Amino acid sequence: MKATIIDGKKISQEIREELKPRVQNLIEQGLKPGLAVILVGDNPASQVYVRNKEKACEKLGIYSLKHQMPSTTSQTELIQLIDKLNDDPAIHGILVQLPLPKHLDEKKILYHINPLKDVDGFHPYNLGRLMIGDPVFLPCTPWGVQELLSRYQIDVSRKNVVIVGRSNIVGKPLAMMLVQKAKAANATVTICHTATENLAQHTRMADILIAAAGSPKMITGELVREGVVVIDVGINKVDDQLVGDVDFESVVDRASFITPVPGGVGPMTIAMLMANTVQSAERILHG
Ligand code: NAD
What we know:
Helix 7 (171-179) links the parallel strand 5 and strand 6 (188-192). The radius of gyration is 19 Å and the shape is globular. 41% of the residues lie in helices and 16% in strands. The protein has a six-stranded parallel sheet with strand order 1-11-8-7-5-6. The longest helix is centred in the C-terminal third of the chain and has 22 residues, at 265-286. It starts with a strand and ends with a helix. The protein is of the alpha/beta class. The protein binds nicotinamide-adenine-dinucleotide. The site of nicotinamide-adenine-dinucleotide (NAD) has 25 residues, from helix 10.
């Protein structure tokens, strides 16, 4: 079997096209969606991510406001900026680019964002709403994974989904989304992590395997069963090259579907961020 390659670039483009008329409609009603991105320090990878987010906004006609702050920024200064943005009616989404410099308390800062402007979906309010099956903002990367599956008509219902990784931004929220009794969900979900004994025993049970461990090429062909759907969330830099958590070469011949890195989940994250920003602005008009 040779897997179908899931084209995240194409799907993310499709999603952005679908957003265009919604943005246009908002603008016609006098409401331009606005996204504020806060970048503290000069982490080169974060700079690239922020630039890509700005470009995506520009292409869609979303107002984007970048706050570049020095790495010496204090907790109080950052909280004051978030307060200002929480009150700014031109801003519908606030995103603090992670990771933050060590002296800043990431949790306190993220908790300070108005949950109704939390387009990253990391605020405990939004994670709680997600858990009870009544989400406001879905976190962008997990939502991107769910969209890839549903737009490739990969039925999740009743399937064994195995997620490798239990972070608060990918693994855990994605598990919560896919386990809901809802459309594009209703799966039996297993979360594996660093304390999982006999990882292979779990991954070989997967109808759908989602790798979000940040460990380059750790998922090899021998860890998956024939016909598996493989979604690779990992982005790892190895010798100046980007590689996923999946050893693509050894898995591609066993899988039925597989995402590449780059060009798989990555582009989806930004598309879903745009979708959350548009949705946030729409809520102002329509409640
Ligand atoms: P993280 O480091 O916060 O979490 C990784 C998780 O994987 C941990 O919970 C850990 O328990 C588990 N893990 C690590 N090594 C493991 C192993 N050998 N076996 C079993 N479990 C293991 O990472 P994260 O923020 O969730 O990101 C995961 C990966 O996804 C990273 O490569 C990151 O760069 C990438 N990522 C990509 C996007 C995107 O847009 N495509 C977005 C976010 C993160």
